[in-house]
UniProtKB/TrEMBL annotation:
Boundaries of every PA14 domain copy: 417-555
Keyword Zinc tagged: no
PROSITE patterns the record matches: PA14
Pfam families xrefs: Fn3-like, Glyco_hydro_3, Glyco_hydro_3_C, PA14
Signal sequence range: 1-21
Superkingdom, natural source: Bacteria
Transmembrane regions listed in the UniProt entry: none
Organism: Bacteroides cellulosilyticus
Protein name: Glycoside hydrolase family 3 C-terminal domain-containing protein
Keyword terms, alphabetized: Hydrolase, Signal
Family the entry assigns: Belongs to the glycosyl hydrolase 3 family.
Amino acid sequence: MNTKKLCAALLLASGFLTVSAQKWYTPDIDPKVEELLKQMTVEEKLSYVGGVDWMYTRNIDRLGINRMKMTDGPQGLGTHGKSTAYPATVMLAATWNENLAYEYGKALGRDCKARGINILLGPAVNIYRAAMCGRNFEYMGEDPYLAGRTAVGYIKGVQDQGVMATVKHFIANNSDYDRNNISNDIDERTLHEIYLPAFKAAVQEAEVGAVMTSYNLVNGIWTTEAPWLLKGVLRGQWGFNGVIMSDWGSTHHCVPAVKGGLDLEMAGGEKMNPKDLAYYLKTGVISMDMIDEKVRHILRVLIAFGFKDGTKVDNSIPLDDPESVATALKVAQEGIVLLKNEKNVLPINPKSTKHIVVVGKNANGYVRGGGSGNVTPFHYVGAFDGIREVGESYGVKVEYVDEMDFMPEIMYTNEKLQEKGLHAEYFTNQHLEGKPLLERTEQKVNYSWSGGTSIEGMSKEHYSVRWSGIVRPAETAEYEFLAGGDDGYRMYINDELVADEWKVGGFRTSTIARTLQAGVNYRIRFEYFQEGGGAAASFTWKRKNETRDLFIEHLNKADMIVACFGHSSDSEAEGGDRSFFLPEADSQLITRIAKCKKPIIGVVNAGGNIGMQSWEPSLKGLLWGWYAGQEGGHAIADVLFGKVNPSGKLPMTFEKKWEDNPAYNSYHDPDGDKHVKYTEGIYIGYRGYDKLGRDVQYPFGYGLSYTSFKLSDMVASAPNADGSVKVTCKLTNTGKRDGAQVIQAYVGRDKSGIVDRPEKELKKFEKVFLKTGETKTVTMTLPKDAFTYYSTIDKQFVTDPGIYNIMLGFSSREIKGQKSIQIH
């Protein structure tokens, strides 16, 4: 036996190496791979391990090797033009429906086939630690089991269409601030119990074809350079046979990446480039065997997935596919979470609610998170349009009111005071230079331009705008100006710089208060530039301590207020973290409308929790709308009016305040050494809140319905020969509407165990749909793995004998039945 085979045999015997987990990898592939490898020149091999043209692998025409075409994901095709914009994948997780996750993936696969795309860069399964992470909306919540089940459905749906999925970001991309430099330091047990399981399920159950590394370091090593992770865990322990690619620009050094196990550097082989690779080959620092291994992995998926012969477009699938649109709507309907419904204010009763006013910046447009997960839809339905459409079908008057329409009429375009508003100038550069492309009068400035300004000749990036005019108040009073922008903005009064944020950055605001004299002209100027990424500009004014609020007076004429607020691509996006709280303008809006005498329903957009202690009590009803995709307006309206009974459940815990979070002391870099130590260990999310005994705003797995359910007759069997345990119960819809409930099965070791274990851990769930009055018997099988923990001594998952509690409930804090079993 040669040395390589001997090492493999020893690793396999010791449990550190498994056989292939991918069924697409069959023995007949290897001879084809080796034949191509034999024919490739050294130069071709060295270039093949780097991408090209942003979203492609290289082609080698003389060998009939066509390039593979990729697209951004995970919630739709973000590259190569318009496509269906699905709800964010955190909303998919909130459906707690693995079958629907499969349909989501299937629709994505069809979208890819319609465009000749081979590789989808999704799903993303990094664990939610804190609400502020800029990419939480792309992830699948705080629990590794829920994330894993959602990802498995998604990946199978994609790959059953003949398209290769890519699970990302391997591993521990749990924050997005300074993501290229932060080392997330995690102990071995925590890695294996919390941060690796969703990836493992993607590899071993869903048989994903590609894994993408993350930007960050783990325990002091960039993930692109970590042989213990890429070779040891991913290939050795899990038997992964697909391709390991870098995230775009996340490769830092040539030799460590080569030796670490990275196969494909995206986007263009900046570090693993032919020139440097040839040099290190010549000096003997790396070997040709190392390069061959990478090429072998790429060729393996190329052949296995049938991509070698080139991109094939399935013209039978329309680009704007009605099936995809239907899936997007279904996921949004099931993913909305009803958090509060005081005195059953919802669903809206058209007999008593005849007039609804919709407010808030998120009521209009396609509201989404920002970054590479962004998708440009063919069409979309905003919240206001959806509510108006359904409301008017019931004879309800629905109007949108902008608080800016009620700002004091003190702005004029110039000294002549003949035209109200501000004079706007749009420039095609970032520096307000040259002749403006467009000049016009604007009555208000409240823009979100992540999809572009829609002005002909203006690009989506590298532009600037100036708004100027005269302020002439009729009465002497103190006025407050609120200026905001993403990227840079600044404000002048009489040429005095009073707000200066003239730099690249996420959306932020400045408040300027000035006493202005009646009949006096004040020159005002608000300037903005956009470099790239998120784009938004806002400029408002009001009279402080105004005794009469025309905006509130108008709202009080309605029967109900629906406030659409929260985050968006302006404030929650890849490449940075957001605030734990609402954007300032939204916070001010909610504080203001809290004075209304009519019931207020909140519809919130965000990838996770928002500090709500100051405003949640003023709401009679609260829907968590996440980022609901192009059909979000329809889904929100369907839930508000009861056409759909809400069934979404939180995939993370909503803490009362950030200081309550188990990761509070270990999320940022307190010492400034770029090392973030995950000191909470396995006690993240509900595991941590249970251990700390802390009350929460809304628990993991929580979500209300318009009907009621009863769980009864729970039975847990003794362990079977294979170590599994069968659990049965009855679920009854005791209310007056058809609906769905998620039965959540948690397992916890009793306190007599030697090893510290969480009070409860999610190990199974099932979404059950019931007509009113209907009862179903539900059977769930908990596998042997449900009772294990990771032993750092044995280097594997083990089960300790003893008493285990099996709990069935409707959330982590609403347990409806419990049984104890003995495991020997």
